UniProtKB/TrEMBL annotation:
Lineage summary: Eukaryota, Metazoa, Chordata, Craniata, Vertebrata
PANTHER family (UniProt xref): SISTER CHROMATID COHESION PROTEIN DCC1, SISTER CHROMATID COHESION PROTEIN DCC1-RELATED
GO biological process, one term: maintenance of mitotic sister chromatid cohesion
Organism expressing this protein natively: Heliornis fulica
Protein name: Sister chromatid cohesion protein DCC1
GO cellular component terms attached to this protein's record: chromatin; chromosome, centromeric region; Ctf18 RFC-like complex
Family: Belongs to the DCC1 family.
Length: 390
């Protein structure tokens, strides 16, 4: 039965509440026929995300069955965690807050409201790093070996369109697009592919040899001539892709030119030398490396951050390949992996291998404090594992 004013006043008296201190409007609540737990979910949004929805844009929940769900906006990724509440949360359609009520002190309204549902928890969002490691892994299932590859002619390779990647990768669209550029992926017949390393090197060598033969400046390589000269050897879109991967495109006087990236070319040529040896004598490597790069380019060890590691403790000093993209994505697993490769690290050495783990407003220092223990060794601060590494 619906309460009348006398019953409301009697209830206030029993609760020892003074009606003069309260708004004259009373909400009388009753459970509607469909009210049940689990029918509705609550999602707590920060103002920026709320504005996205209000502007008519969508938020997407991504993740396969065995993955922890994440929520993505156009350019950010959030972890979704259930937060329990001690108070039951009631859903009341058309419910008004005191600020929304235009109350005339003279009238004593009773509003009868039906509860449509209730919940004891809500989804809490925390900004997180996009989970992009899988992107490279998917594209590396079938790297592109060139137009003559048997596999590509039979069309049996793993095919991934932008749509496929959006449904498989736990990251926002902008983060995925940015990562595709970072790993030098290219679209071939509508599918995203990564060039197989040897094929990419073959293309890059064609370009470097042409630059050398024509005595061009490394900062002004003409696209048109490259395509004319090398078009008989490889598809023109592949020549252009390798120029885009290893150079910056610009237009001068109506012609398209590329300024070649010195650091990126030196880095990839070092990778080519290092991947054929387990360890390389450092001084010998530096000599061979400098000889292998185009004239006018200078090799420096800091071009190899996150790609190779120098072992200063061995006599003579050595260098070996250690690629950051081959390491685990999870923070603890990443540190376990690094400490199994080397027991003690200096901050300079470990930084390139953990930099990508830093979340928003997080520094390498805070990561090291959490996952490593520091000590002094010969006057240098070094970091080792907080837990025994099996």
């Amino acid at each position: 039965a619906m309460r009348n004013r006398a019953e409301v006043d009697a209830t206030l008296q029993t609760a020892k509440l003074n009606p003069a201190e309260l708004l004259p409007v009373v909400h009388c609540l009753s459970f509607g026929p469909q009210a049940g737990a689990g029918e509705c979910c609550l999602l707590q949004l920060e103002p920026g995300l709320c504005a996205e929805l209000e502007a008519g844009r969508s938020l997407v929940i991504r993740g396969e069955k065995d993955e922890q769900a994440v929520l993505c906006s156009k350019d950010k990724t959030y972890d979704m965690k259930i937060a329990d509440t001690s108070n039951m949360l009631l859903f009341i359609p058309g419910c008004q807050t005191p600020e929304q009520m235009n109350v005339d002190q003279g009238s004593c309204n009773i509003i009868h409201s039906q509860i449509a549902g209730f919940s004891n928890n809500y989804w809490e969002l925390r900004r997180c790093r996009p989970k992009l490691k899988k992107l490279r892994k998917l594209l590396m299932e079938d790297p592109y070996e060139g137009p003559d590859s048997q596999k590509d002619q039979t069309l049996t390779f793993s095919k991934y369109t932008t749509e496929d990647l959006l449904s498989l990768i736990q990251a926002s669209e902008e983060e995925i697009v940015h990562q595709l550029q970072a790993i030098d992926a290219c679209k071939i017949q509508g599918y995203w592919r990564i060039l197989e390393f040897d094929y990419a090197m073959k293309l890059l060598n064609h370009v470097i040899q042409l630059i050398d033969a024509e005595s061009w400046s490394l900062s002004k390589v003409p696209l048109r001539t490259c395509l004319e000269e090398l078009g008989s050897l490889e598809p023109t879109e592949m020549i252009e892709h390798i120029l885009l991967s290893y150079g910056r495109k610009y237009v001068d006087d109506g012609e398209v030119y590329f300024e070649m990236h010195e650091d990126k070319i030196c880095r990839v040529l070092a990778q080519m030398l290092l991947q054929n040896a387990v360890k390389f004598n450092l001084s010998e490597f530096q000599q061979v490396w400098q000889q292998s790069v185009p004239e006018g380019m200078t090799t420096r060890l800091d071009q190899l951050k996150g790609l190779a590691l120098v072992d200063k403790s061995s006599r003579p000093e050595t260098i070996f390949l250690l690629k950051v993209e081959d390491l685990p994505e999870d923070n603890q697993e990443r540190f376990n992996s690094l400490f199994s490769i080397r027991e003690k690290w200096t901050e300079v050495d470990i930084t390139p291998y953990i930099q990508d783990l830093c979340a928003e407003k997080q520094t390498v220092g805070t990561l090291l404090t959490k996952y490593a223990r520091s000590s002094m060794q010969n006057g240098v601060k070094v970091y080792n594992s907080r837990r025994p590494i099996s």
